[in-house]
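User: Sequence recovery, please. Input:
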């Protein structure tokens, strides 16, 4: 069966402000020393699995040109522009509608555009196994990450051993759970029955369509209309009308938490969702003082800090556990234990009508 990939690239990356902005969000930034952007890395590591002409990117209409500029190898028609933000279920439904028109049925990998993978051969092998499970029946497959510490910023998957017919490393999903508090996260880690929810999924187009039909019928009706209109002069109009009517719902809540035949693979391929500025010291090499530094920076008695300079010299004296990011029009100074609150800066800027800084 044909294998396709859908890359979700419509996010705004607000926790990476001030580098990530409305007109250049995180997935289009380079956050590693090799200069490749997040979305370029995502596409590159799919090479052993999916032909380039079978990779589809779903993004905000405002980012369509950005996607084309950074991924010129993709066919232009494979860049699918959402008319407005409607969460992950409508994003996936749009891509499935288009792929269904092209191939009738196919395996569909659904992947975020802004994650990093350290061990790419292990990643490839994990997805190959997920593809086999998806092809074997009406199965919804999610990739779970073996947790290494009690993270409170991720959702979790509770898994259990299934029947003897399941391949090694494949488990039944018992339930999905929301982001826990610290004590709950510690209990999840010690129980060894939970995985981090990576937001990566594998299924057949026919399988996800049938689940939309059962669990989100209003979404499926719009999906049918989009499939019929794709490739005709009516497509843009139909897409606008149907997408506006879609519920703003995540695939987790809309389908995965309610469906049957859900399986997970436990993976340990060096996954990082690069969710906030703390990620830079995980995905890049720090110096002997525990600092990650780029740009024109002088440090004196400075430890365990991330400092990203711009055109100006930054002199950091006697600081520890800070994030400092300089751009042309804004500077972020943030305690490491407050990185989740960077989004509140965006909220404040909106309230103050300072949209030029968002």
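Assistant: Recovered sequence (358 residues):
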């Amino acid at each position: 069966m044909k294998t396709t990939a859908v890359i979700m690239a419509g996010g705004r990356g607000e926790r990476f402000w001030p580098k990530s902005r409305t007109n250049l969000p995180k997935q289009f930034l380079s956050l590693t020393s090799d200069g490749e952007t997040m979305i370029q890395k995502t596409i590159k590591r799919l090479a052993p699995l999916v032909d380039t002409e079978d990779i589809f990117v779903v993004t905000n209409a405002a980012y369509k040109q950005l996607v084309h500029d950074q991924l010129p190898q993709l066919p232009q028609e494979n860049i699918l522009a959402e008319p407005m933000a409607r969460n992950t279920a409508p994003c996936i439904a749009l891509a499935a509608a288009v792929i269904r028109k092209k191939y009738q049925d196919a395996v569909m990998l659904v992947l975020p555009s802004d994650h990093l993978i350290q061990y790419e051969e292990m990643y490839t092998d994990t997805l190959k196994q997920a593809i086999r499970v998806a092809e074997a029946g009406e199965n919804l497959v999610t990739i779970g990450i073996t947790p290494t510490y009690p993270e409170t910023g991720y959702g979790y998957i509770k898994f259990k051993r299934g029947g003897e017919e399941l391949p090694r490393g494949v488990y039944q999903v018992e339930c999905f759970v929301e982001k826990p508090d610290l004590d709950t996260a510690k209990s999840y880690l010690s129980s060894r029955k939970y995985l981090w929810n990576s937001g990566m999924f594998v299924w057949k187009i026919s399988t996800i369509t049938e689940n939309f039909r059962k669990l989100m019928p209003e979404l499926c009706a719009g999906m049918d209309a989009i499939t019929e209109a794709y490739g005709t002069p009516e497509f843009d109009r139909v897409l606008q009308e149907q997408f506006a009517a879609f519920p703003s719902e995540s695939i987790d809540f809309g389908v995965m938490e309610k469906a049957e035949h859900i399986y997970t693979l436990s993976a340990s391929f060096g996954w990082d969702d690069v969710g906030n500025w703390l990620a830079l010291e995980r995905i890049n090499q720090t110096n002997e003082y525990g600092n990650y530094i780029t740009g024109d920076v002088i440090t004196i008695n400075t430890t365990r800090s991330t400092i990203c300079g711009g055109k100006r010299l930054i002199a950091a004296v006697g600081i520890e556990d800070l994030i400092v990011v300089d751009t042309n029009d804004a500077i972020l100074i943030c305690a490491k234990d407050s990185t989740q609150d960077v989004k509140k800066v965006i909220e404040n800027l909106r309230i103050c009508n300072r949209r030029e800084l968002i």
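The radius of gyration is 21 Å.
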